[in-house]
Amino acid sequence: MTRLKMLIHHNSIPVMLCAVAIGVGLLLWHGPVWAWGFVLLGIPAQMLNEYGLHRYIFHLDPPRQQWAFNLLYQAHYGHHDFPTNTRLFFAPIWVSVPMLVLNFALVWGVLSLIVPAYALPIAAAIVLVGGVSTFLGYEWFHMTAHLNVRKTRVERHVTTLHNQHHFRDFSKWFHVSPGGEIIDRTMGTAINRDSLRNQQRIEFIRTLGMRPDDPRLIKARHHYADKYRLSANEIERAARA
User: Where is the Fatty acid hydroxylase domain (predicted)?
Assistant: First the structure.
């Protein structure tokens, strides 16, 4: 119940739950029965979206401009910097909602050219129901991976792989959703057991290769100190890590 409460209280989750409800409503109101089958297509589509966003956007090389650095810090760098801060577990609403709108508009637009009569229900099935439900699952498993709680076998497996991303090599294991490791293996961003035995922990792992006292990091920590309740001691320790 604690995890569920933590999840629901993040500001983007109610929006995403509403998106799923709207998608179900559109399918019931305007969709043929066979359109429900496209919900399954939304699962791998969102997993690819999760991987691409995490690898190619959230792990961009640190920008020189402080404003751009701050955006990436709030989106993801800060989560690596303070991996146990619960307020940094979830995707910011300014990332998740625009991505939802963009994905829906793109899928709907393409389908409108191919099957205009069924574009809306199919897009609702793929993006609003299948995709957003998968995103909610991602948020659950990601949150769970960072909490010291009793876990299911699947949750333990996800935690093991995700810990390698955080504390062994941040250029590997970009997936979080169960089954997403297929994408990492296909894309060459997995760590196999033999490699893991010899894999050294990357220097400055929690700051994605940057020195912990990098001026951009220091400014970002202070900028978000109140929002994420970072104490002066936490900020000081992070700069010395």
Answer: 40-189
pLDDT in tens, 69-125: 999 999 999 999 999 999 999 999 999 999 999 999 999 999 999 999 999 999 999
Domains identified in the chain, total number: 1
Nearest to 160 by CA among 126, 129, 196: 196
Domain that holds residue 188: 2-240
> What is the CB-side half-sphere exposure of residue 161 using CA atoms within 13 A?
24
Q: With b meaning 16 or more CB within 10 Å and e meaning fewer, what string describes 203-229?
A: eebbbbebebebebbeebbebbeeebe
215-230, pLDDT tens digit by residue? 999 999 999 999 999 9
